[in-house]
Amino acid sequence: MELALWLLGGLVMLVLGGELLVRGAVQIAGRLGISPLLVGLTVVAFGTSTPELVTSVQASLAGSPGIALGNIVGSNIANVLLILGVAALLCPVAVNSRALARDGGLGFLAALVLLAVGLFWTLDRVVGVLLLLGLVGYIVFAFRQERVAEGADHGAAYDKAEAFAAVQPPAFPLSRALGGLPGAILQLVAGLGLIVAGGAVLVDTAVTLARALEVSEEVIGLTIIAVGTSLPELVTSVVAALRRQADVALGNVLGSNIYNILGIAGATALIAPTEVPAGIAHFDAWVMVAAALLLLVVARTGWRVGRREGGVLLACYAAYVWSAWPA
């Protein structure tokens, strides 16, 4: 019970800290006159993944690659099978063919790259630089594409930022009281502090939990930690589905998967190089690739992800979790 409370506390700090960090950074960027579109594609889209980033970096620094890589791989699996499955059950997801080919294809390619790294290489600084360069290239491409986008032909990075903005609560009282740049800086610093503290609590608790349950750290990272750090994506996708903006829910999932591999894995490799655990490389990374491929197949059936397909995705996730946990 005590471990569960510590785990919950770490997740709450991560989620709240991530929100404060992004909101503060957005306000600062606005005061500096940076384009709202560029802010959305960078500060918001990448900032919403800070819980995954801090957790993976701290786990890698602590010598727990199973949690570090499990968080990334498990989050991508959960995004497709769990989060998109829930969203589709709430509201069938319409699919834009061009967006699917562009962002779904890149997500699948990124998953293949991470699989190849796990099988034939290691998550070192060279890989980290290459992945981050890939993210920069994607952001530049997305920025140029969004400037000429017409109608609903938005990319996944844009939808990820839109989904986050749609669930923003009113400003916190202290931020409202200070106002302006001081309030924005306060939110940024407070958010960063909460994320770092929450990440440390989460990693320490996950290691202790793995020992208490006599399971590997990989299992904890791939399931409990991955789902926990993906809660913001779950909330934003569910809200988008309930508002009948299911296309945004799909973009949020695709964008999160791209940023997780290119950004989170890239930054983790650059800051704290680590080995890819054999179990993840030879099984879970394959599941991640299969999930990315399944999304492409399911989305092409009538260019929508209906409730039946959503049920199939959830069933696949249940089967994956069952196979991951030891009997």
Automatic annotation (TrEMBL):
Residue ranges of domain Sodium/calcium exchanger membrane region in the record: 4-143, 185-323
Subcellular location: Membrane
Alphabetical list of Pfam families matching this protein: Na_Ca_ex
Alphabetical list of InterPro entries matching this protein: K/Na/Ca-exchanger, NaCa_Exmemb, NCX_ion-bd_dom_sf
GO cellular component, one term: plasma membrane
GO molecular function, one term: calcium channel activity
Keywords (A to Z) from UniProt: Membrane, Transmembrane, Transmembrane helix
Transmembrane residue ranges: 77-95, 104-121, 127-143, 184-207, 219-242, 249-272, 278-299
Protein name, entry field: Cation:H+ antiporter
Organism: Roseococcus suduntuyensis
